[in-house]
Please model this.
Amino acid sequence: MFKIKIKNKRSKMGEKTIMHYSSSQEILLVGEGNFSFAACLAKEFGSAVKMVATSFDPEESLMQKYSNVTSTLNELKGRGCTVLHEVDVHTMSQHPRLTNRRFDRIVFNFPHAGFILMEHNKIQIKLHQDLVKGYFTSAREMLTGSGEVHVTHKTTHPFSKWNIVKLAEEVGLFLVEEAQFTRADYPGYINKKGSGRKCNRTFRVGQCSTYKFAKPPLQPYFPS
Model:
């Protein structure tokens, strides 16, 4: 299900938004590569004090992989963003800097387990599914009551074989909305391959969506 996209706007109270995200939300970004998505949100909000942006790679590896990442990280920190490295989505709920925090939005753009086999290979698909399911499991524990877990993912074959919605349901999350994703809606965001010899190259996004998930609403309790 697709809904009409509402681009950048500013509320009467000074709240700033870009697409699905707001400066009033506590936001956790995981799997950042060159941190350009985090930088896009921070620039739009003007402040990133409510944002935490994380990478799986150590900071030293990022310097080797991505040009300009140092200036991007400095800009984020200058806007008040908490930047963390070596954060594994499987265990992030136990990270000492994250374990006591709850978030309104947790975001993973284009999750990928690495270029090991061909994308249509069943083993490769299973590796991707394990990554995404691990993310869902951890993220579910880190949500506020009305929080959402987001995944931006390609919807064409063979990526559709990942069965994103089913993976979420298996850990107790339900689909709130599937919204069409367009990279141009996020000025300055440059998606990268992230691994292999061509890690600093971008890749064609094509048809993809941002899937939004939430915990089921609490059922009312009627005493007998």
Summary: Residues 7 and 185 are 7 Å apart (CA to CA). Helices lie at 36-45, 59-65, 69-78, 122-140, 164-170. The chain is about 25% helix and 25% strand.
